[in-house]
Fold each of these.
Amino acid sequence: MKSIVKSLAVTALLGLALVSSAHATPWKNLDAEQLEATLVKKFSEGKYSSKGADSCLMCHKKNDTVTAIFDGVHGQINNSKSPMAGLQCEACHGPQGKHNRGGKEPMISFGKDSKLSASAQNSVCQGCHNDPKQMAWHTSTHNLEEIACADCHVVHAANDPALDKLSVNDTCTSCHTKEKADMNKRSSHPMKWDQMTCVDCHAPHGSMNESALMQPTVNDTCYSCHAEKRGPFLWEHAPVTENCVSCHNPHGSVNDNMLDNRAPQLCQQCHAPDGHASRVVPEPGMDAFGGAKSCLNCHSQIHGSNHPSGSLLQR
Ligand code: HEC
Ligand code: HEC
Ligand code: HEC
Ligand code: HEC
Ligand code: HEC
Ligand code: HEC
Ligand code: HEC
Ligand code: HEC
Ligand code: HEC
Ligand code: HEC
């Protein structure tokens, strides 16, 4: 409990000046900043009701969404760390105050409709969830972009959709529409059937690696499933060793094999105009250089070759 108060107290400092004036003002006249400062102050003062959840359920028990919390981990009384074993609803929503006089005095609320900043919402969760596993969160893009824990997590539910392999892709693509479009393209990782998920490659709470990847580099990410591409090869192809995404889009593409581009254009990003290919004039009916696979017809070992005379990746 102490840690919740402490983390909120920091946020409270920002708004202290506003709080005193806010007290005299009716709730509905407060702007977002004043509202937040007032709720945060109430939270840290900690005048919790003695009846806990019972006092809330008097009015909220008919809402199935609300009572669903008892089906999830946060509603379990037998786990001593669970909110329900302590301050109950108020552990997250803050002290009731005069809210029970018709629900007009606001409570701390969460998610997309909340009037509170993401960091104020999150500090409530972090009061309990502050183990080392959460360390990367602070510098993560999601934190810096003001994404709230409750934008992904649903706590009033038997099963949090963010923790379910069959629904986590929906959680992510509700914001990431470009990746949603990509994963539904002709060639993609099997994400549209939820056989693979965003969190197979990305750490949702951030990581020390670029693009919040789970593995130290893009290539290590790919090797974790496509081990055969790691080599070692007698003849390497430089861009393959360097970065798989110089040719592939990991989320999907309209081209076969999730390629950014089709050959020969794919190759010509780096090899034109020096490549010998540009010197060859394609003839009608011959697609050695002009057809969809072109360069790959001869340079078939595009990821590297172990053939003694495979230096041109042709065998
Ligand atoms: C006397 C009835 C009553 C009691 C008791 C009550 N509430 Fe409410 N609560 C309401 C009403 C009515 C609303 C809707 C207010 C609105 O939409 O403006 C509401 C809204 C809320 C909201 C949404 C707030 C928002 O700003 O969107 C939360 C969260 C909430 N209550 C939590 C609680 C908790 C936790 C308790 C117990 C500590 C509690 N309520 C006790 C009547 C009550
Ligand atoms: C009063 C402490 C407390 C607060 C506040 C709290 N949690 Fe939890 N949370 C727990 C406990 C206890 C568990 C059960 C796992 C454990 O024992 O560590 C848990 C588990 C979880 C899990 C894993 C659920 C699962 O099924 O394994 C998620 C996700 C989570 N909390 C998110 C949140 C979010 C989001 C918030 C803020 C809206 C929040 N928590 C606030 C105590 C808390
Ligand atoms: C971008 C979406 C997203 C955000 C934002 C997010 N989480 Fe999570 N969280 C997830 C996903 C997805 C998992 C499951 C990870 C897995 O299956 O590998 C998870 C797992 C968890 C778990 C259980 C497993 C564990 O790592 O301990 C807890 C607890 C948790 N999150 C708490 C939080 C808290 C607290 C916040 C805010 C500070 C937060 N999450 C923000 C998506 C998110
Ligand atoms: C672990 C923190 C936590 C606890 C404990 C908790 N809530 Fe919530 N509450 C949330 C979050 C987060 C949301 C946003 C929706 C969601 O995640 O389910 C929410 C949403 C709500 C809402 C708005 C629902 C709506 O229809 O929009 C009400 C009302 C509410 N809670 C009341 C309660 C009551 C009553 C209790 C106790 C029985 C309670 N909450 C316990 C975190 C909590
Ligand atoms: C509420 C909206 C929202 C949700 C839900 C969400 N994200 Fe994000 N995410 C963002 C924003 C905003 C950014 C920063 C802008 C961008 O890169 O699109 C971002 C950035 C990222 C990045 C780039 C990180 C970096 O450091 O470059 C990754 C990877 C990512 N999100 C993965 C996920 C995954 C995986 C999930 C689901 C577990 C998820 N996101 C859910 C909003 C969201
Ligand atoms: C097979 C591994 C893999 C999967 C699965 C995956 N990603 Fe990525 N993602 C990557 C890699 C690798 C990058 C870095 C791309 C780069 O550097 O150009 C990336 C980059 C991103 C970025 C940053 C984009 C940018 O332009 O900076 C976002 C956002 C993102 N992924 C979201 C998602 C979402 C949402 C999902 C699930 C629908 C997902 N990813 C699934 C591997 C994956
Ligand atoms: C979690 C495991 C996993 C990771 C990590 C992974 N892949 Fe895959 N990859 C798969 C699976 C599963 C398939 C589908 C195989 C099938 O359909 O036979 C696949 C297929 C592919 C295909 C062929 C797609 C097609 O249309 O046939 C390419 C190309 C590919 N992956 C590239 C990558 C790249 C690049 C990375 C790193 C950014 C990566 N993969 C990371 C599991 C993974
Ligand atoms: C220079 C461009 C390029 C780079 C870089 C590249 N690939 Fe490919 N990749 C291709 C092409 C072209 C194909 C299609 C091969 C074919 O049609 O014979 C392909 C096909 C694939 C396939 C599906 C067919 C197969 O061979 O299994 C996988 C999986 C794959 N690549 C993984 C990777 C991984 C992992 C990396 C990074 C280590 C990587 N690629 C780097 C060009 C590239
Ligand atoms: C991202 C840039 C890039 C792309 C895309 C690319 N390559 Fe390369 N390729 C290189 C580099 C760099 C080398 C090493 C050149 C060197 O060592 O002089 C190389 C070497 C080669 C070699 C061996 C030639 C030699 O001199 O060692 C062949 C053959 C080749 N590439 C064919 C292809 C084909 C075919 C494609 C398309 C499927 C392709 N490359 C796509 C950058 C690229
Ligand atoms: C008909 C088979 C064939 C096709 C198709 C082909 N190549 Fe080649 N490539 C070769 C042979 C044989 C060599 C070695 C002889 C030479 O240098 O001309 C070579 C050499 C290369 C080299 C080494 C540098 C050089 O100029 O000697 C690169 C790079 C290369 N090819 C790229 C490409 C690209 C890019 C394409 C597609 C636009 C392509 N090749 C299409 C057969 C082919």
Amino acid sequence: MTHKLTLWPSGEVLDVSGEENLFAQLKKSGKKIKSSCGGCASCGDCVIIVKSGEDHLSPPGFEELRLLGNVFHITKERLSCQLKITGDVTIDISAHEKKPISVGPVEKKPAVVVRKKSEIEEKAAQVAAEPPKKQDEWFKHWEKPEDNIGKTKQLGGNKRPKPFKSDSEN
Ligand code: FES
């Protein structure tokens, strides 16, 4: 028995049989569906999105659930190599279509930048004109200069230990 398979968004309608999986039938009708495993349910490349007719799909098998998980109600994705239909269905295979190759000149940056002598001299003059950086500023960045005037740094939370009182003193 044949059913109507509508391709979204083109609206193309194919007559497909309910006996064979969609991957094989789409391939026969000249549609490009990505696949690395050739329809063995091991690559997960042949995913299609079901747009309508969810009630007319064969239930997912163990291999399909292992690859896609039990989330069809969210993603609407099925493996076309495992899917047979029992009624009219609309699917989206736009992810499998070839993307148009961009035509135009591709700018390539050279691996080595060649500078003119005048540019190098200009850069050297710029570097020489900059004021020298202070070398010892980095490790005291948390201290403000006014904090250190007339003070010696005290460690240990500025608390002295209480004197020990022995029994003989009491
Ligand atoms: S073709 Fe590889 S999982 Fe369907």
